[in-house]
Amino acid sequence: MPDRRLGAGARIAAYRRLNRLTQRGLAARANVSHSLLTKVETGSKPASQSFLAACARALSIPVTHLTGQPFIEQQAEDRLSGPLNDLRASLENFDLTLDDLPVRLLADIRPDVRDMVLARRDAQYARILGRAPALIDELVQQSQILTGHDAEQAHHLLVQLYRSAADVAYALGLADLVSLLLARMDFSASRSGDPYQVATYRYMRAYSTFTTGRHEVGQKIIRAALADIDIGVRAADPVAVCAAGNLRLRASILATRQGDAEAARGELAEARHLADMLGREVTGSDLATGCAGAMSYGATNVAIHSAAVELELGNHRSAVQLAKQVHVPSGYPPDRIGHHHIDTARAHLLIGDNDGALTSILKARQVAPQKARYHPSVRETIASLVHTSRHTPDSLIGFAHWAGVQL
Predict the structure, then answer these.
(1) Residue 182: C-alpha distances to residues 137, 295, 297, 319 (Å)
(2) Total-model pTM
(3) Per-residue pLDDT tens for 250-268?
(4) What's the total number of domains in the chain?
(5) 297-312: b or e for each residue (b if 16 or more CB lie within 10 Å)?
(6) CATH number of the domain where residue 22 is located
(7) Helix, strand or coil for residue 48?
């Protein structure tokens, strides 16, 4: 297996040779540009997530083989290995009552789950891993002991907790753990008595198709979720509108991965209409209080995705211009801001603006350091910056060492 310390381009080249494919052969099989493949393999261009997924599918390997995930050294440095094992152990039980397991009342557990939701939005992976296993044990026990509405509430809280943990597992490149958490989400969502928890599960399931390249499956999942909550959307229920808006945004990115610009922009238009219908940003404290279980949503999220869609479609200058128009309100989720800066950095790099790319990467680290440390696009951008810079600034060298990028 190719060295994990290699860049994605070098790993693509190594697996291509193992499969006895020429560059043109792999480009044809993956349906990607031959010239782009050449540039990615030499390190002069960063590989996008969609590009990596296409190559991985063509090579019949997990995409994490190309991204180099999981980043074992960084996990060890951040002391995540033990908590990850605890999380896996907690997921063994989802439907059994255990003897002598002390549990608190749901009213006492709920604030801790809210804290995990907010930790997810802050991209605080260690905080989630440190507390989620014990909370899962408590809530599974309560979901089996309680009956009626109380049991549904326990499952509702479990969906939120599983989602927070799934975001961490996805960020760390642990595909098997993501699949297990999705299965647990499905189990509890179907028992929560809340169609919006089912929508949350489907939203996350569609997300997982990004890494496999099965975008057509993701679109089917989203269509089913939208149909389930259509009545709530028509009634202008804020929770339904938030869910539908996020599903539309996810559909827009899936459409770009399928190369369908018209469909992507159509989904954005639907999402923009839903943001107008909502009339405000749902963030922060709304999640577990006024809009219990709602996904955060609003015009800012639509603006961020508008730039991301143009980036995915290859319109890099348009992406940069749209990114400049994003105005982040106070209290906006750091996880989402960090992702926006990561995407913007890649757009700057692709138009030859290395200074702009580095500035955006540093902003991502400032607002969401754990996200920046583990996001494979960050490593790709840093590696390309090093490759294409005449003089490597100290800030870039320091960032590369911090993120574990081999210079």
Answers:
(1) 17, 17, 22, 32
(2) 0.89
(3) 999 999 988 899 999 999 9
(4) 4
(5) bbbbbbbbbbbbbbbb
(6) 1.10.260.40
(7) coil
